[in-house]
Amino acid sequence: MKGLILQSLSGYYDVLASDVIYRTRARGNFRKRRIIPLVGDQVEFKPASLKEGYLLEIFARKNSLVRPPVANVDAAIVVVSCQQPAFSANLLDRQLVMLEAQKIKPVIYFSKQDLLSDQELKNFTKVFIAYACYPVFEDSVKLQEYLQRQLKQQVLVVMGQTGAGKSTLLNKFDPTWNLTTREVSKALSRGKHTTRKVALMAWKGNYIADTPGFSSFELKNLDSQNLRQLFPDFWPFQSNCKFRGCLHQNEPACAVKAAVAAKKIAASRYQSYLQFLEELQQKKPKYNRRKD
Ligand SMILES: Nc1nc2c(ncn2[C@@H]2O[C@H](COP(=O)(O)OP(=O)(O)OP(=O)(O)O)[C@@H](O)[C@H]2O)c(=O)[nH]1
Ligand SMILES: [Zn+2]
């Protein structure tokens, strides 16, 4: 049978096939091939009526995340708190770049606007405008309406900093999920995220995974030459740069820098770009051993 891995828990994989969930285990040959089945994997399996069945094959993945370990992710709700923890453009941009690199559609949700004073909220309009190339929501009902309209049979993850409000948001999606929320101070002071089992929850024709939060985010496996392709707000401009391979760094006649100066690209986005670029340029190149 063919199905979708919905849950992974201590070596067991729960596979959904035609509305029935089958418990399975991975066969030894996966371990030999160093393939670890992931939630979100499309699989072929042999069901068993009394005992658990066996996974036979894992079909090619479109992408896979490490945190959370989920494969074939179509879209991500990036939960960003306006306060507590304080908004960090850098951290948001890191998440967006990583999602772009994996071809996962980001949807941004700004939480905790109720904690902002009128003046602070006014200042935040700049932030919202900076991300106009993405779907941005501050209202959880509108977010749900958008997701229902746009997505069918898709795998979604909810990601964001520790204490950003991921579980609180998901409980609005479906109160019966009853996900535990914690005060931010407690969550942050422990310095670690709570581990939960990895599971996709069915939601209005789609599947959603809650993700443990993080406090820092490293850019991995990215090529400095390709970074500019991961900023969709640069796309309308960068074909006009004088130099074909312009990295928008020190090159003359750079259309992206001009767009930043003309406030068509947010300065904070360009700053993130430059910082990530330098970070990637400073990473030591990896040498692969020749096989001959
Ligand atoms: N005022 C206000 N508080 C919120 C909002 N969303 C979440 N919170 C609070 O923020 C705290 C953290 O929320 P959680 O939903 O547990 O955050 P999380 O992102 O799931 O956190 P981790 O699981 O640790 O990654 C809780 O005390 C929530 O009640 C909001 O929109 N406004
Ligand atoms: Zn340029």
UniProtKB/TrEMBL annotation:
The record's remark on the cofactor is: Binds 1 zinc ion per subunit.
Residues forming coiled coils: none
Its function, per the record, reads: One of several proteins that assist in the late maturation steps of the functional core of the 30S ribosomal subunit. Helps release RbfA from mature subunits. May play a role in the assembly of ribosomal proteins into the subunit. Circularly permuted GTPase that catalyzes slow GTP hydrolysis, GTPase activity is stimulated by the 30S ribosomal subunit.
Q: Where is the CP-type G domain?
A: 62-217
Binding residues annotated for Zn(2+), in chain numbering: 241, 246, 248, 254
Recorded protein name is Small ribosomal subunit biogenesis GTPase RsgA
Q: Where is the signal peptide?
A: none
Q: Which gene encodes it?
A: rsgA
Broad class of where this protein is predominantly found: cytoplasm
Location of this chain's protein in the cell? Cytoplasm
**Entry binding sites for GTP:** 111-114, 160-168
Q: Which of the seven top EC classes does this enzyme belong to?
A: hydrolase
Q: Oligomeric state and partners? A: Monomer. Associates with 30S ribosomal subunit, binds 16S rRNA.
**Entry EC no(s):** 3.6.1.-
| Alphabetical list of PANTHER family matching this protein | SMALL RIBOSOMAL SUBUNIT BIOGENESIS GTPASE RSGA, SMALL RIBOSOMAL SUBUNIT BIOGENESIS GTPASE RSGA 1, MITOCHONDRIAL-RELATED
State the UniProt keywords alphabetically. Cytoplasm, GTP-binding, Hydrolase, Metal-binding, Nucleotide-binding, Ribosome biogenesis, RNA-binding, rRNA-binding, Zinc
The cross-references to InterPro entries, in alphabetical order and at most eight, read: G_CP_dom, NA-bd_OB-fold, P-loop_NTPase, Ribosome_biogen_GTPase_RsgA, RsgA_GTPase_dom, RsgA_N
Its BP terms in the Gene Ontology are:
ribosomal small subunit biogenesis
List, for all copies, the residue spans of the domain called EngC GTPase: 71-215
Q: Which family would the database say this protein is a member of?
A: Belongs to the TRAFAC class YlqF/YawG GTPase family. RsgA subfamily.
GO CC annotation, single: cytoplasm
Required cofactors, per record? Zn(2+)
Q: Supply one GO molecular-function term.
A: GTPase activity
Note one Pfam family from the annotation: RsgA_GTPase
